[in-house]
Amino acid sequence: APAAAQARGHAGNQRLHDRWTRLAAHHKKHTVACVAIARELAGWCWSLATLPDT
Hints:
Blueprint: H1 3-25, H2 30-49
Helix pairs in contact: 1-2
């Protein structure tokens, strides 16, 4: 994988993990947390798919 994709992948993974931890710390319902993470994951996948090839 290109270095830019690897960097964005690592940053996105860290962001999703931090978001999940934050939602759990605020005692959000499991379903609400899952949907929030799924929305962000969809956007993250789209950003990787549209990353220009260099």
